[in-house]
Amino acid sequence: MASPALYQYLVAQDLDLAETLARYLIAVPIAAIMLALFRMVTAGYGREKRALTLQNAQPPAPPVVEPEPLSAPPN
Question: What's the pTM value of the predicted model, to 2 decimals?
Answer without folding.
Answer: 0.47
